[in-house]
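stage 2 :: seqdesign
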């Protein structure tokens, strides 16, 4: 019985606790870099999607702002031209997996497989990604190993307005106005998961924020294409 308990603890530690501790270390390093940069980093997850990403790109272009898009492999396959547009307009693309699988709710090696397949699809379209944001910002042992082996940079955030959970664009716009400042890396979503509010909320909320903000466009930046460390 003691050996069984010890075995279960070791498995739990390796698959959940150890990756979580590494993530906290990486997050602390990242946020220090973000703070020192004095910049604002808009990041978008779960796209690209025809109904939202194109409009977001239009707003960013109008305001001369660059951002970072963590894309899903399945959506890249469905929208390759839109993915190429993200790159052509000067934005950065990062890995978000293939099918948005929660690393803690699947068999550990499937977390690695999801990141691998998402990256493989990007490479298929000639995109070399150096940044990764696993779904939900979570890691398990195998996804951690994949990131280490491929020398990817884990990207977290320090401002999450939960745009997918907002039912009014005005609420999102107000949150952005009140909370965005230099030294922030903002988590937004140009794609949508089942059970969340419409992507239109993000589109309209972001548009309203960009039209009314007094923040200089020069303070906004995408994650640099050559890495941050």
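stage 2 :: out
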């Amino acid at each position: 019985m003691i050996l069984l308990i010890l075995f279960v603890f070791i498995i739990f530690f390796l698959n959940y606790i150890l990756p979580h501790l590494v993530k906290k270390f990486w997050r602390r390093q990242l946020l220090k870099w973000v703070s020192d940069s004095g910049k604002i980093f808009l990041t978008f997850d779960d796209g690209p999607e025809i109904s939202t990403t194109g409009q977001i790109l239009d707003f960013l272009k109008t305001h001369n702002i660059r951002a970072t898009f963590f894309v899903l492999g399945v959506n890249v396959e469905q929208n390759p031209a839109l993915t190429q547009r993200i790159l052509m307009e000067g934005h950065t693309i990062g890995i978000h997996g293939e099918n948005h699988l929660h690393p803690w709710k699947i068999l550990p090696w499937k977390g690695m497989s999801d990141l691998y397949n998402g990256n493989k699809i990007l490479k298929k379209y000639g995109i070399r990604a150096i940044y990764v944001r696993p779904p939900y910002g979570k890691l398990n042992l195998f996804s951690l190993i994949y990131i280490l082996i491929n020398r990817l940079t884990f990207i977290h955030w320090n401002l999450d307005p939960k745009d997918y959970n907002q039912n009014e664009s005005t609420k999102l716009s107000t949150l952005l106005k009140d909370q965005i400042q230099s030294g922030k890396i903002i988590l937004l979503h140009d794609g949508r998961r089942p059970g969340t509010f419409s992507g239109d909320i993000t589109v309209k909320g972001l548009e309203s924020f960009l039209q009314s903000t007094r923040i200089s466009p020069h303070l906004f930046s995408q994650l640099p294409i050559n890495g941050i460390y």
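stage 3 :: structure notes
- The domain at 26-219 is CATH 3.20.20.370 (TIM Barrel).
- The chain has a mean pLDDT of 95.
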